[in-house]
């Protein structure tokens, strides 16, 4: 019975750490650009789009605009993933998966 209680406590601790990490990541953001800056997309560390800015000049060509939005999104996601990787390393988030695995083995 004590072993089960310990596992439940460990799960709760992991859940708390995961929420802390998610909160830390939400504070980060990155801006991706497309069309030489004509389209800008700001993304937070939870990969939620915070804002989209489109230069009025970009509205003249639908096909190019679509391409530039795609470029800006991909650029922003790539940048925020790099930030997330650094942050996760700093706060020990990469250890969560191994800790979870260790708990399941016990």
Describe the structure.
Pfam families: YbaB_DNA_bd. InterPro entries: YbaB-like_sf, YbaB/EbfC. Homodimer. Binds to DNA and alters its conformation. May be involved in regulation of gene expression, nucleoid organization and DNA protection. This protein has 3 helices and 3 strands. The protein has helices spanning 2-26, 62-91, 96-105, and strands spanning 29-34, 39-44, 49-54. It has a single domain, classed as Ybab, Chain: A. Helix 1 packs antiparallel against helix 3 (96-105). The protein has a 3-stranded antiparallel β-sheet with strand order 1-2-3. It has 106 residues and is of the alpha+beta class.
Task: Please give the CATH architecture.
Answer: 2-Layer Sandwich
The description of the largest β-sheet is: 3 strands, antiparallel
Q: How would you sum up the global shape?
A: rod-shaped
The first-level CATH class name: Alpha Beta
Helical stretch tally: 3
Low-confidence region ranges: none
What class would the helix/strand composition place it in? alpha+beta
Output the helix-strand order: HEEEHH
Mean pLDDT: 83
Task: Supply the number of structural domains.
Answer: 1
* Beta-strand content bin: 15-25%
Give a count of the beta strands, DSSP E runs of length 2 or more.
Answer: 3
Gyration radius from CA atoms, angstroms: 20 Å
Question: By CATH's scheme, which homologous superfamily applies?
Answer: Nucleoid-associated protein YbaB-like domain
Q: What percent of the residues sit in helical stretches (DSSP H or I)?
A: 55-70%
Q: How do the strands of the widest beta sheet line up side by side?
A: 1-2-3
Span between termini: 13 Å
CATH overall fold name: Ybab, Chain: A
Pfam families: YbaB_DNA_bd
Subcellular location: Cytoplasm, Nucleoid
InterPro entries: YbaB-like_sf (IPR036894), YbaB/EbfC (IPR004401)
Protein name: Nucleoid-associated protein COX00_04450
């Amino acid at each position: 019975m004590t072993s089960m209680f310990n596992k439940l406590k460990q799960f709760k601790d992991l859940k708390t750490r995961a929420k802390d990490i998610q909160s830390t990541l939400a504070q980060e953001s990155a801006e991706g650009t497309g069309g030489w800056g004509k389209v800008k997309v700001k993304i937070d560390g939870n990969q939620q789009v915070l804002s989209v800015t489109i230069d009025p000049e970009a509205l003249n060509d639908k096909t190019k605009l679509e391409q530039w939005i795609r470029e800006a999104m991909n650029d922003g996601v790539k940048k925020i993933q790099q930030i997330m990787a650094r942050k996760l390393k700093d706060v020990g988030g990469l250890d969560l998966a191994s800790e979870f695995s260790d708990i399941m083995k016990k």
